[in-house]
Amino acid sequence: MAREVSWRKAIERVLHEAGTSMHYKDIAEQIVVRGLRRSIGATPAATVSANLTTSINREGDRSPFIRTGKGEYAIRPGRPGESMPMAPNVEEVPEEEKQYGVVTSFGMFWRREFVQWSTQPRLLGAQQIGAKPVDFCNQIGIYLLYDGREVIYVGRAAERPLGRRLYEHGADRLSTRWDRFSWFGLLPVSDEGELGSLPRTFGSDRLVPAVEAVLIEALEPRQNRKRGDDLSAVEYLQEEDPEIEKARIKETVNALLKKAL
Question: Is pLDDT larger for residue 210 or for residue 68?
Answer without folding.
Answer: 68
